[in-house]
C-alpha cells in the first residue's frame, strides 16, 4: 500500500505542479497565513515550514502566526480570519459540537480538513534533580505547565492527570517559556502534547538533565479507555534522555482550511505537501507521518472539496461524499 502511494505521488509530482501553475487564480488570495501555536513547539516549526514551502512553490506569500493552538486555530479558520491552521482531532470535534471555550455554543463547522500531519504524543517532563521519575512520584499540588491556554495539551492533559490521581497547580504559557521556568525551578513538571521531537525538550536536554516520564501499561490503557487517544510509543532515539522506548498516548493532527477557500487553491496546496514527503521531513521529523494513506485517520472533520479531489484522484484513500463539505 505504501509503495503504491509513493509511486502515485512521484508520478503526479511534475504534473501536479504544472496544474497548480495553470489553474485559474482569479479567486486566489495574494497571501495566506497558517495558525500554529506557541514558539518552541512543534506546531510553530511545522506550520512555518510548510507555509514557506507552499508559498514558494505556488508563488504567493505564505507565513505562520503564533496562536493559542488547536482550539484558537479552529475558531480563526472557521471565521476566515486565518486561511489555514493546524489542529488535533479532539479539539476539532469539540469545536464542531459547539464546545470550544472561545465561543461556547457556536458550532465551528466551516473549518475543513486538508491533509494529515502526525500524531501528537502526550508526555511528562521533569528535571532529574527533582526526583520525579513516574506519574506516581508527582507530588500533591505540583506546579505543572500545560502549554498555551486552549491548546491540545491544556485541554486534555489536566483531565488525564486527574484521571490518574494527580493534583496540581495549573500554569499556562508558551513551551519555550515553560521550559525556562522548569529549568529555573518555578515549575515541577511540564505536561507536553506536541509532535516529537519537541524543540523545547531538545533544548532542555542540552542545558540540564531531564526525566521523560512514561505511562505504565495500566495508565496507558486507562487513558485510552477514557479519552479520544490511541496507544503510542516514543522511540528511544527521539531524545538523549531516553534509554528505552516510553509508553505514551497520542491524538492525530490535521491541517485545516477555511471551507470557503477556492477549490483550486486548496488542491494545489495539498499537491505541494503530499507529493514530496522528503521536503516535509526536512521541515520537521514528525512529518514522516505526513503521507497520503494517513488521510484515513480523519473521522471528525469535513474534507475541503479541493483536498478530497486530490486524494480521490491520486490515492486509494476512500472519502465518502458525506465527509466532504457541501457534499
TrEMBL record:
It comes from the Bacteria. Gene3D superfamilies: Periplasmic binding protein-like II. The keyword Transmembrane does not apply. Pfam families: NMT1_3 (PF16868). Residues 1-20 form the signal peptide. The keyword GTP-binding does not apply. Keywords: Signal. InterPro entries: TRAP_TAXI. PANTHER family: SLL1037 PROTEIN. This is TRAP transporter TAXI family solute receptor.
